[in-house]
Design brief:
One of its GO terms (cellular component) is cytosol. By secondary structure, this protein is of the alpha/beta class. The chain folds into 3 domains: about 190 residues, Rossmann fold, CATH 3.40.50; about 60 residues, Archaeosine Trna-guanine Transglycosylase, Chain: A, domain 4 (Roll); about 220 residues, 3-Layer(aba) Sandwich (Rossmann fold), CATH 3.40.50.300. Helix content is about 35%, strand content about 15%. The chain has 20 helices and 17 strands. It has a 6-stranded mixed beta sheet. Strands 14-13-15-16-12-17 form a 6-stranded parallel beta sheet, with helices on both faces. It has a 5-stranded mixed beta sheet with strand order 7-9-10-11-8. Helix 5 packs across helix 6, helix 14 crosses helix 15 and helix 18 packs across helix 19.
């Protein structure tokens, strides 16, 4: 597994581990009877035989354009077919298109020296980067390994097969290890089928332990300490007893099996009591009362003016979206923020919505319906709740009817919108909720975080186990990436919800299905 920036992952980018005094790629080419110059002109032979050769797939470059500077003193190989694939995406007005353009600019800068790009250009880390060309007319006539590969995957027109073929050539003509780096699971399986070393790109993946359990950490204390905390609301614990607890982390102070109290680690190692109201009050609507300990911790973070970033994991039915919206309305009506913005990604940021009829609001309504459901539940007066006749529903929701939040939406106080057009915005003094944040890539999450101006609070909620975006997984999505990179900051807090409150059926389904 590849973690180029990890200091203890020596098997990834530490080229000194496997340096060997073996023949160079050109010497191997001579032994096989292949022209030395042709091999070098195609980028098949590495500039030296003392470092690993990493072949980057298109999806890795689109996922993290900065990966070109994260392989230290190793050889980076970019197949020419990868450039052709990038060219298809560069015109998109999306994060993927922006990443493709960024890669093109970076490669142009790296190859600006005018040297032969197939023979290797030095990188800042002490390695090289070069283009690799797969030419069927020449390569297939001079490679037994490639002939065997083509018997297994005969479709020469498929880009994945051409990238794999180029990797086969590199493996054949270089003594140093050749490793294909791709986030495409099917590509990984194909590579393993033909004996190619293949690994995922893990520079932005979090440790598996961070998403394996949503249970709250506990800190053992003496009964006298717990009593002192209960009376004063504060407890100072020396560092060795809390060395794995980060700033603003929520824990359970535990003195025996039955004596427990929740707390948050404040500055200078002080655990403080949760500061939450009995209920979140929504004017002319429904009040929301936290139903479990996790929701209490979430409300404490959402109402804390010193915390401007809240991340929340929770499976379906734990109430993460409803609690976040209720807290946003509560804060908005108390005039702590100028407005409330609730958004969701449409699988991946920038997807086109033209296949649905109507205006942009009409197109987005199916994607944003869960947000409207939460607003309906929280803001509808009691008189409009419960079963109604069909005619009554038409009168309430027809031409003459309106929702309690419609006027607020028209005035811009409440915004319910897609995430497609957030690039370039600056969002001041707003309570911003991003639902289903696990569908974002790390670069898209960075785009959202950097849009927040002074006075705004950003709330990212989602379930890392429910991924529809093919470019991320439970450990590399934007939600867990943001949590991992910003944890321990004085403005950041994280809560995991594990108890379902939607219904016994929903909780059983989430756990057992």
């Amino acid at each position: 597994m590849i973690q180029p920036n990890s200091p203890d992952a020596s098997h990834v980018v530490d080229s000194t581990v496997e340096k060997r005094s073996s023949e160079s790629g050109t010497a191997t080419a001579k032994r096989k009877g292949v022209s030395k110059s042709r091999i070098q002109d195609f980028g098949i032979a590495a500039p030296s035989g003392t470092a690993k050769n990493f072949v980057l797939d298109t999806n890795v470059l689109l996922h993290d354009p900065g990966c070109l500077s994260r392989f230290k003193d190793n050889h980076l190989c970019i197949p020419a077919d990868v450039l052709a694939e990038l060219d298809k995406f560069k015109g998109e007005q999306s994060e993927r298109g922006a990443n493709a353009r960024r890669v093109h600019r970076r490669l142009t800068e790296m190859f600006s020296s005018g040297e032969n790009v197939t023979r290797g250009v030095p990188t800042d880390g002490g390695g090289t980067i070069r283009l690799v060309i797969y030419d069927p007319a020449f390569c297939e006539e001079n490679s037994k390994e490639l002939s065997q590969f083509l018997r297994i995957f005969p479709d020469r027109g498929q880009v994945d097969h051409r990238i794999l073929a180029a990797t086969v050539l590199l493996k054949e003509h270089n003594e140093a290890p050749v490793i294909l780096v791709t986030k495409d699971l099917n590509m990984q399986l194909k590579a393993k089928a033909v004996g190619i070393s293949c690994e995922d790109y893990l520079n932005d993946k979090v440790d598996p332990s961070e998403v394996s359990s949503y249970d709250m950490r506990s800190v053992e204390v003496d009964p006298s300490e717990l009593q002192r905390f209960a009376s004063s609301g504060e407890l100072i614990i020396e560092h060795p007893r809390r060395k794995e607890i980060v700033l603003n982390q929520y824990v359970l102070l535990k003195a025996g099996e039955k004596q427990t109290m929740p707390a948050r680690l404040d500055s200078e190692g002080t655990f403080v009591r949760l500061q939450i109201p009995e209920v979140l009050r929504i004017p002319d609507g429904h009040n929301l009362k936290p139903l479990n300990l996790g929701q209490k911790c979430l409300i404490d973070a959402l109402l804390n003016p010193d915390i401007s970033l809240v991340t929340c994991y929770g499976q379906a039915g734990t109430g993460k979206t409803l609690v976040a919206v209720a807290a946003g309305l509560h804060e908005m009506f108390n005039r702590r923020y100028n407005g409330l913005t609730v958004s969701r990604p449409v699988i991946s940021m920038g997807d086109q919505l033209g296949f649905l009829p109507g205006s942009l609001d009409d197109k987005m309504r199916p994607w944003l319906q869960p947000i409207y459901d939460a607003l309906d539940l929280l803001m509808q007066p009691d008189s409009q709740q419960g079963p109604r006749r069909k005619q009554q529903k038409k009168e309430n929701l027809g031409e003459g009817g309106s929702k309690p939040y419609d006027e607020l939406i028209e005035r811009g106080i409440i915004e319910i919108e897609a995430l497609c057009y957030i690039r370039g915005r600056s969002i001041p003094n707003r309570f911003f909720i991003l639902d289903e944040a696990q569908q974002l890539t790390p670069q898209e999450a960075k785009t959202v975080v950097t849009r927040m101006s002074r006075g705004s609070k950003l709330v990212l909620v989602g379930d890392p186990a429910q991924i529809d975006n093919p470019y991320v997984d439970s450990r590399s999505n934007g939600l867990v990436f943001t949590r991992n990179r910003l944890k321990g900051q004085p403005f950041s807090a994280h809560i995991s919800l594990s108890r379902g409150e939607r219904s016994p059926l929903a909780e059983a389904g989430a756990q057992l299905m």
